Input
Amino acid sequence: MSIAFTKQNTNIAKGVAILFMFLQHLFYSTSYPYIKLNIFNLDMWFVLAILGKICVSIFVILSGFGLYKSFSKNENVLDFFKKRFSYIYSNYWFIWLLFVPLGVYFFGYNLERVYDGNVLKHLLIDLTGTQIYFNFFGVNSTWWFISLLITLYLFFPLLYKISKFKYFLEILFLASYSLYFFRFDEFWMYETYSYFFSFIAGILIAKYSIFEKISETPNLWKFISIITIIVFSALRCYRLLTSTEYVEAGTQTCFDPFVGFALIIIFYLCHRNNKLFFLLEELGKYSFIIFLIHKFLMIYCPYYVFGLDYPIFILLNFILVNYALAKFISFLKDKFDNNLYKLKCFVCRR
Output
């Protein structure tokens, strides 16, 4: 008997991705002040941080999957762009207006320095979320993902049309994996287009109802997923830990789609209504806002974030604070949207 992949499953998978994102950003730099857990001269928290980049592939796979499912019900391209970009930018600008002035006035965040002396130009780039196309970080280095989302959304209607032709998208899917190993002139562009493999994978998973087919033989797929996670995670860590030279972003993340998909399957097949999955689902519900705000806490309050010394307490505290803050900001955003809607209605009546 097959089991549908629901919105709840999506949120749980997003919650897992958020945890990996936290691991990477909290512990990837060994210079951060936390107590190391050394085994065989390796800090295990740093090893987990290496795997943290998997979060991007998870988000991108889920994005391709969700877009295909929703677009199949309504094939109006203009409505698609309006809905998706209004969601991205309304949240993006709201968080920008909350946190950037806060950093400037209370935490000494110098926009002149951040924007490399060209405030107006880089401000416009930042507000449009196109930093990645200008090899530019902006006020928050993790917001390169906004540029990736914009790119994927722009290409999605075309990919959806291609999916209607027999084997066209499947061939493109196989070919897109080579993007992990091509070198482009611009580093960030290189990394962006490498994620098309994960994005197309999500589309094909939705097209062929892969999750439902997997659920018909759950034990077999649990075993396959566990082996996949172990093997490809080991390969990723080995590549980074043994390399004496800089490893390009694409080639270091070429294992991530397989691990990311395997993790989605594990949590999908093992889903139960217990407290662990409830917490993951809650994180997933607010994943976009958490993604937008979490780095600011590290920039503005590093002594608070790492003040507990032990990584497990640092992580738990970071989860709690980000979740509470995201929930509060979501409440404020809803109030703002409601008042804006009432204002529009009032103006229209006049």
Remarks:
- Strands lie at 38-39, 42-43.
